[in-house]
Amino acid sequence: MTTKHVPKDWMFEFHGHRCPFMPIGYRMGMLAMERLGVGHESDHGFFVFPEIGEGHPQACMMDGMQIATGATYGKLLMAKTFYGKLAATFYHPTKGAVRYALKPEFVDAMGKLEFFAYRKKGVEPSQIPAKVTDEVINWVYDQADDFMFKVEPKPDFKFTPVKGSFNKTKCTACGEYAFDRYVRMKEGQPFCIPCSGYEK
Ligand SMILES: [Zn+2]
Ligand SMILES: [Zn+2]
């Protein structure tokens, strides 16, 4: 095994199945944190911007990135750019930013493993024989970081999170609370977005 960044069993349980991509995202996150000199994020100070889109494979990487960094979707620390690329930028307001991308040579070499023959036939990862899944996961663990990742410092990267507010208002129609940046006015009365009839 070449890498020390190997997910624990509970991480695979959280993710739901064994696949090579959650571990790749985990490793990407751990390496980015080491490089920037930051630890697992407790609160709201570290951000991940995956370039992954939708409707393509390998999106599982994002679960690994969240597990590694603590920069989770629920804490509003992860936002996708929808470029449809296998890359992510990791950003800390005082430590800087770094972008990690999977190298095409690595993606092509991995694509030759039997796991992908099953995936292309539409077989879900949990239904693929364990021997086949373990083969690809262990193969990834054996690859060198240099072969897998293109790494670029992003000194000019800037991101300003939305300013938080606890202010909320009851909707005139449904009576439910909406936070104020989402409240819409109609004939002088406050409404939530679904009741307002307005677009977002
Ligand atoms: Zn997966
Ligand atoms: Zn409403």
Q: TL;DR of this structure?
A:
This protein is an alpha+beta fold. It has helices at residues 9-15, 21-36, 61-69, 104-110, 114-120, 130-142, 145-148, 193-196; strands spanning 47-50, 87-92, 96-102, 149-153, 168-170, 177-179, 184-186, 189-191. One zinc ion (ZN) binds next to helix 8.
How would you characterize this protein structure?
This protein is of the alpha+beta class and 200 residues long. The protein has 8 helices and 8 strands, in the order ααβαββααααβββββα. The strands form 3 sheets. The chain has a 4-stranded antiparallel β-sheet with strand order 1-2-3-4. It has a two-stranded antiparallel ribbon with strand order 5-6. A hairpin with a 6-residue loop joins β5 (168-170) and β6 (177-179). The radius of gyration is 20 Å and the shape is globular. The protein binds zinc ion (ZN) (2 copies). One zinc ion is lined by residues 15, 17, 19, 21-22, 60, 125.
